[in-house]
């Protein structure tokens, strides 16, 4: 299994965000395998760039770009008063979350800025404007059904056959977490167009084997 360079792993561990190390290592290995297709890697849900560091390192090794999509205003559970709110990422001038500056600092510190293209906008709108094939789609955006379904329906059609779909926060037991990512994971399997490659805690890695979403 491919592992990130020590300096990449150190930058990942130092970065603000929501990706545990074990899942991050599985994400890196999946991205490295998929990068061999020679197509861009895409992430939905940049936040402050923690997982982006791993995709950027895998992309750099293969000579492909890593794309990362976020409106940078935070998900529902990251808003003031909610469980995952971080007041240090609020823009005091506009009074809204803005994780873009922290993301840029994260990538700069990791020395990976030139390997990442940041797409700032709402995932379904960016997906509708995107024209090319992708070798890897990592879904870690909004965790409501509306957002998870929008990510799935927006980006999976761009994923090449042979490409990899990774979904984070898949919890079969509702006691462990929200069900929207689990529902798109089930949808992918039920489509007949994906086979499961690996399971690491809440991270699911699937390979696209055919058409249909
Ligand atoms: C769970 S965080 C991503 C965590 C990140 N991957 C990490 O490793 O720390 C989810 C992110 O998705 C973004 N997001 C939620 N819904 C979105 C949407 N519809 N379009 C774009 N970004 C969205 C939020 O702004 C938030 O930054």
From TrEMBL:
Pfam families for this protein: Methyltransf_24
InterPro entries associated with the record: SAM-dependent_MTases_sf
One function term, GO molecular function aspect: methyltransferase activity
Alphabetical list of SUPFAM superfamilies matching this protein: S-adenosyl-L-methionine-dependent methyltransferases
Gene Ontology annotations for the cellular component aspect, listed alphabetically: plasma membrane
KW Transferase (keyword) present: yes
Keyword Cell wall biogenesis/degradation: no
PANTHER family named among the record's database cross-references: RHAMNOSYL O-METHYLTRANSFERASE
Name of the protein: Uncharacterized protein
């Amino acid at each position: 299994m491919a592992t990130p360079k020590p300096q990449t792993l150190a930058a990942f561990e130092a970065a603000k965000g929501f990706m545990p190390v074990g899942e991050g290592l599985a994400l890196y290995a999946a991205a490295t395998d998929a990068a061999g297709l020679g197509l861009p890697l895409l992430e939905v849900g940049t936040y402050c760039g923690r997982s982006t560091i791993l995709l950027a390192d895998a992309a750099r090794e293969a000579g492909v770009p890593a794309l990362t999509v976020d409106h940078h205003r935070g998900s529902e559970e990251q808003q003031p008063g909610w469980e995952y709110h971080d007041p240090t990422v609020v823009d005091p001038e506009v009074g809204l979350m803005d994780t873009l500056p922290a993301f840029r600092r994260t990538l700069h510190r990791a020395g990976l800025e030139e390997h990442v293209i940041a797409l700032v906008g709402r995932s379904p709108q960016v997906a509708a404007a995107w024209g090319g094939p992708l070798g890897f789609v990592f879904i870690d955006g909004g965790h409501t059904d509306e957002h998870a379904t929008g990510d799935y329906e927006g980006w999976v059609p761009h994923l090449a056959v042979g490409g990899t779909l990774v979904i984070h926060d898949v919890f079969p037991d509702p006691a462990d977490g929200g069900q929207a990512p689990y529902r798109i994971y089930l949808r992918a399997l039920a489509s007949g167009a994906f086979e499961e490659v690996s399971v690491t805690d809440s991270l699911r890695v699937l390979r696209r084997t055919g058409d249909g979403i």
